[in-house]
Design goal:
The protein is an alpha/beta fold. The chain has 20 helices and 12 strands. The strands form 3 sheets. The chain has an 8-stranded mixed beta sheet, sandwiched between helices. A two-stranded antiparallel sheet has the order 8-9. Strands 11-12 form a two-stranded antiparallel sheet. Strand 4, helix 4 and strand 5 form a beta-alpha-beta unit.
Length: 477
């Protein structure tokens, strides 16, 4: 019996769709699931008549594969990944390959890579973006691990990935945890993007009084221009869905946004690396405050905000929201790419940021028309420290800032929360400010904790006894 090209563990929706995608590209796949009944169900339903082999034990799965064995894990991040690695190891040999295609934390991937290297087993941490549809029709794929391991599966992943202009949205990102790190940042940018779109919707609905039909039409028009993206496209579609009650379905959805942790991880990484990523972090916090629905309902009954209504021109504000959305989106991406640049230094990865932007053009959730502009920016300046310094993005944000500020002012005056728009604008203003008030912060730190400070006119580290009149400063180095 001919051995299968690839194995896959985990037959939830993403796993099943990825298997079907792989098989459609003429690769044979052996599958296993912890609940083995799912294997049999899959074979009699979606996989019926396809070149897919069902197995009921780990040993049977491994035995069904050609060598070197290549096994994809499509299981929940965390302990389940470690558990399956431990179950696989007794049956694997040197040179066999495990591919973790779930949303694993990148530091776990680094740890697992080292652990498996000691056992001569190859390991690839693979970010897969695109959701259920992407897994089936072609996702964006970010692979990190040994280069030799990548070459074993490059033909497969290049074929099953989304294709844009004949180029696969799949690439080798770098060693150990690089693939999962880049996927994590993708998700962080996604959090920011989604939050900004929701704030635009809130202003359009609550300030301009736009109903679902008008909202859908507006987002559909915006999707024909520079805001063209998957998220704008699906937002337009969402407003067309009518519930059985006769109401737009979106208005029947409870305003509690869930999260799976990747946005939080991206924000934590920003804190660890000392990289400002306020828009990504605010998007996470916005979901947190949405989750305390009961408290908010109670607070709304006793805490009153402004009573004013917007008196300005509707079309002017709508255009301002459109421009603010694009400018704030650029800042969210700028934060994400700055994070990847710093992480590359910290973890000794060689990240090609332009190439990363190109594999996000198709298959993934944040695919957008303007991603080619990011690639062009890094082609012009490979060592670009921030997207806001690129001529294209600099000009766009500078031109949009007046309307962007108007949106934030109107929202503030009317009591409409826009943490994404506001944090992105503050990021822009902070980044372009040569002297921030951090000098006072450092003086305070030195006053109460002797944390020292540096001067603008002398080299070295200094400390001052601030409470004693006329006590000179002390050079600490």
């Amino acid at each position: 019996m001919r051995k299968c090209d690839l194995g896959l563990i985990g037959l939830a929706v993403m796993g099943k769709n990825l298997v079907l995608n792989i098989e459609r590209h003429r690769y044979s796949v052996a599958v296993f699931n912890r609940t083995v009944e799912r294997v049999d169900e899959f074979l009699t339903e979606e996989a019926r008549g396809k070149n897919i082999v069902g197995t009921h034990t780990i040993e049977e799965l491994v035995d069904a594969l050609e060598t070197p064995r290549k096994i994809i894990l499509m299981v929940k991040a965390g302990k389940p990944v470690d558990d399956f690695i431990d179950k696989l190891l007794p049956y694997l040999k040197g040179g066999d390959l495990i591919i973790d295609a779930g949303n694993s934390f990148f530091k776990d991937t680094i740890r697992r890579s080292r652990y498996l290297a000691e056992k001569s087993v190859l390991y690839i941490g693979t970010g897969v973006s695109g959701g259920e549809e992407g897994a089936l029709k072609g996702p964006s794929i970010m692979l990190g691990g040994q280069l030799g391991a990548y070459k074993l599966v490059e033909p497969i992943f290049s074929r099953i990935a989304a294709q844009v202009d004949g180029v696969p949205c799949s690439a080798y990102i770098g060693s150990d945890g690089a693939g999962h790190y880049v996927k994590m940042i993708h998700n962080g940018i996604e959090y920011g993007d989604i939050q900004l779109i929701s704030e635009a919707y809130s202003l359009m609905r609550n300030v301009l009084g736009m109903g679902a039909k008008e909202l859908g039409g507006t987002f559909a028009r915006w999707n024909q221009g520079k805001l063209n993206s998957y998220l704008i496209e699906i937002t337009a579609d969402i407003f067309t869905k009518i519930d059985a009650t006769g109401n737009p379905l979106v208005e029947m959805v409870l305003d509690e946004a869930a999260q799976k942790g990747t946005g939080k991880w991206a924000s934590q990484s920003a804190l660890d690396l000392g990289v400002p990523a306020s828009t990504i972090a605010e998007a996470v916090f916005a979901r947190c405050i949405s989750a305390i629905k009961g408290e908010r309902v109670g607070a709304a009954k006793v805490i009153k905000g402004p009573h004013e209504k917007y008196q300005g021109n509707k079309e002017d504000l709508l255009e301002a929201i459109k421009q603010a959305l694009y400018a704030a989106k650029i800042c969210s991406y700028a934060q994400g790419f700055s994070l990847m640049r710093e992480a590359a230094r910290e973890y000794s990865w060689h990240l090609d940021l332009g190439r990363i932007s190109m594999i996000w053009r198709g298959g993934c959730i944040i695919r957008a028309k303007f991603l080619h502009k990011i690639n062009e920016a890094f082609q012009r300046e490979p060592n670009l420290s921030n997207l806001l310094l690129d001529p294209y993005f600099k000009e766009v944000v500078e031109k949009a800032q007046d309307k962007w500020r108007k949106v934030v002012i109107v929202a503030t005056e009317l009591g409409i929360p826009v943490p994404g728009f506001t944090s992105a604008l503050t990021y822009f203003d902070s980044y372009r400010t040569a002297r921030l008030p951090a000098n006072l912060i450092q003086a305070q730190r030195d006053y109460f904790g002797a944390h020292t400070y540096r001067r603008i006119d002398k080299e070295g580290i200094f400390h001052t006894e601030w409470m004693v009149k006329d006590r000179p400063e002390i050079r600490m180095d």
